[in-house]
Amino acid sequence: MDYPEERKQYIDGIACQYLCHIEKSEKPGNVFSAHFHYYIEMLYALSGHFRIYLNGIYHEFAAGDFVLINSREVHQIDALSSAGGSYIVVRFLPELIYDGMTQSHFELKYLLPFITENSIYEKVISSSILNAKHSAIPGLMNEIIREYFSLAAALLACKWRRTASRRF
């Protein structure tokens, strides 16, 4: 089956290296239809219960769970909770990892297995595992979204000031 490809996003002709937002659903049902894109995508559920289709296999994730979606990996997300739910989405170009890699032992052993095509490793990491391992992932995902929104607000304020100063 053919799935639509979500194209890279551009600002002023330059590909966005990373994108962040909070995806919210107010009710059960499809949140995002099956598609793929060039970005590597990370999800961190804030509330609700979801089902994600990843390359032909359905998984479930809920508040506190982390999901890793590789570049060009077909995925679809459905909300299962009666009130929907929300999750943080962080997408970034694979080049942000690959271009800076020196092929160290650490990168080859711990990073590449998760981001290579047809990875056999878990794509959904439950909150119980994250909590048991005292993982920094929940804090980092929340910090990424806070920084992204504060930067976006600052850029918007600068753009507004430039526009306002041109009117006078």
Features:
168 residues, alpha+beta, nine-stranded mixed sheet, two-stranded antiparallel sheet, 4 helices, globular
Helices, strands, pairings?
Blueprint: E1 5-6, E2 10-11, E3 14-15, E4 18-25, E5 29-37, E6 40-54, E7 57-62, E8 66-69, E9 75-79, E10 85-92, H1 95-98, H2 105-115, E11 124-125, H3 127-132, H4 137-167
Parallel strand pairs: 1-5
Antiparallel strand pairs: 2-3, 4-10, 5-9, 6-7, 6-8, 6-9, 6-10, 8-11
What would you say about this model in short?
31% of the residues lie in helices and 38% in strands. The chain contains four helices and eleven strands. The chain has helices spanning 95-98, 105-115, 127-132, 137-167; strands at 5-6, 10-11, 14-15, 18-25, 29-37, 40-54, 57-62, 66-69, 75-79, 85-92, 124-125.
Question: Could you walk me through the main structural features you see in this protein, from its secondary elements to its overall organization?
Answer:
- This protein is α+β, with helices and mostly antiparallel strands.
- It is 31% helix and 38% strand.
- The protein has four helices and eleven strands.
- It has helices spanning 95-98, 105-115, 127-132, 137-167; strands at residues 5-6, 10-11, 14-15, 18-25, 29-37, 40-54, 57-62, 66-69, 75-79, 85-92, 124-125.
- Strands 1, 4, 5, 6, 7, 8, 9, 10 and 11 form a nine-stranded mixed β-sheet that branches.
- A hairpin with a 2-residue loop joins β6 and β7 (57-62).
- It is globular and about 40 Å long.
- The termini are far apart.
- The mean pLDDT is 83.
